[in-house]
Amino acid sequence: MKTKRHVIQLLLGLLVALTARAAEEPGRIEGVIGSAAGPVSNAWVFVYSAAPREGPAVLCPTCYPDCVKRARTDAEGKFLIEPVDSKLMFRLLVLAKGYRPDFIRDVDPLFGGAHLSLKPLKMTNMPIENRVSAKLIDPLGKPVAGARIDVQGTRYGQYSYSSSTTGKVDPMAVTDENGEFFLDCTNGLDAITVDITARSVAKRKMWLDIGKAHLIRMTEGVAVTGRLLNNGQPVAGASVSMNTEDRSSEVFLRGFDVATDSDGRFSLPNIPPNNRFVLYTKMKEMQELGVALSPQKVSTGLDGSTVNLGDLKVVPAFTLKGRIVTADGKPLPNRTRVYLSLEDAWDNQESRADDEGNFEFHGVPSASLSLSLRVNGYRISAKNPSKDWLNEGLIVGRLAGNIEDFVIHLEPGQRFDRSDGPADQDRQPRDKPLRGAKL
């Protein structure tokens, strides 16, 4: 028995050693791209983004040197990209004529290949008046290849907007080696709004008129830098994120994330210029440290500039504990969930209430937040002083310290009418202290 355990330990040690040695050598990414009809030849395969195999990412996902590499598939749909950094995991983007662009996630250059079956475009051979076409160029006028274009909404007429895109336009396109892309749309649409994301340029959101060709010049953007400190000591490995302060669907941008290095420093490149953002740390990742960065307002300046935020001090994070009480005394449905979201930052937590309705959240910064829950047949009653009367199922307010006994009172009934509730200034108490129900 002892000998068997010793052999297993030796084998595990050998596996770890071989993996570590392989990670020090250049890797390769190979695979096959196909479809229901068979192999897909002449498809572009881009290294879209990367992340460390272990530990936090101190570079943005598309900032790694390997993210400029690409390959075409041969007659059998096979491709090969080499060399690549074996210490990274990759996300590949596949582009082929007549097929919907798609991703291959978690590609490991040490183990196995990368395989994908593409799906054909839903809409093809549409008339020119139903097509949005565009070419992307960088600040130097060169084509931007491999840019991702995500459709976020549609417009009908001058004032009618909708976020629904299903069946009306393909949800995503990717620029080819000439920086060009197109999207076919159904009849009746006047414009679509898109997010444009590409390496080494600032993300952009814009409306594109249907039936027109567009030349879109991307900008370099702004670098936002700083350092996180906890009692004068650097905070390493903390994820720092940004999103636009304006949360309206036509403006909102997010997905700007990076981790602090061993000195607590961070650098977020290619942030859209001349805009206002919110910078924050993720609650889940900061829970072990017991600290948090309160959301910071950041104004980006001119294109190509740097915004140095200097030293940012994290402070003790707060705990919010409470219970859900029903007016009729009936138990809550099993697995009732409560969600906590920061009002300014794109960050949230989930807590599952126990049989007695108890829930709790940890690692919450000093910030305006919302609590949301929905229980069939019940509504958040008027006994909740932090009730949001304009949005059913929400409780809003500012958390400025630990709360151990927060009560959410539910009563049987359908949602309130928007005309119900207190005076206008109290109908949405987002900036007032968060308060639970008094029973």
What is the 3D shape?
Answer: globular
Quote the average pLDDT: 90
Question: Would you give the CATH topology of the largest domain?
Answer: Immunoglobulin-like
**Ends: how far apart?**
63 Å
- What is the helical fraction, as a range of percent? under 10%
Q: State which percent range the strand residues make up.
A: 35-45%
The number of strands is: 34
Short description:
This protein is mainly β and 439 residues long.
What would you say this structure looks like, in words?
The protein is mainly beta and 439 residues long. The chain folds into four domains: 91 residues, Carboxypeptidase-like, regulatory domain (Immunoglobulin-like), CATH 2.60.40; 90 residues, Carboxypeptidase-like, regulatory domain (Immunoglobulin-like, Sandwich); 94 residues, Immunoglobulin-like, CATH 2.60.40; 109 residues, Immunoglobulins (Immunoglobulin-like, Sandwich), CATH 2.60.40.10. The chain is 6% helix and 45% strand. It has two helices and 34 strands. The strands form nine sheets. Strands 10, 11, 12, 14 and 15 form a five-stranded antiparallel sheet that branches. Strands 1, 2, 5 and 8 form a four-stranded mixed sheet that branches. The N and C termini lie far apart (63 Å). About 2% of the residues have low confidence.
Secondary structure layout plus pairing:
Blueprint: H1 2-24, E1 27-35, E2 38-39, E3 44-52, E4 70-72, E5 78-84, E6 88-95, E7 102-107, E8 114-118, E9 131-137, E10 148-156, E11 160-162, E12 172-174, E13 180-184, E14 191-197, E15 204-209, E16 213-217, E17 222-230, E18 233-234, E19 239-244, E20 256-259, E21 265-271, E22 276-281, H2 283-286, E23 291-292, E24 296-299, E25 306-313, E26 315-316, E27 318-326, E28 337-342, E29 348-352, E30 358-364, E31 367-372, E32 378-380, E33 394-399, E34 403-412
Parallel strand pairs: 1-8, 9-16, 17-25, 27-34
Antiparallel strand pairs: 1-2, 1-5, 3-4, 3-6, 6-7, 9-13, 10-11, 10-12, 10-14, 14-15, 17-18, 17-21, 19-20, 19-22, 22-24, 23-26, 27-30, 28-29, 28-31, 31-33, 32-34
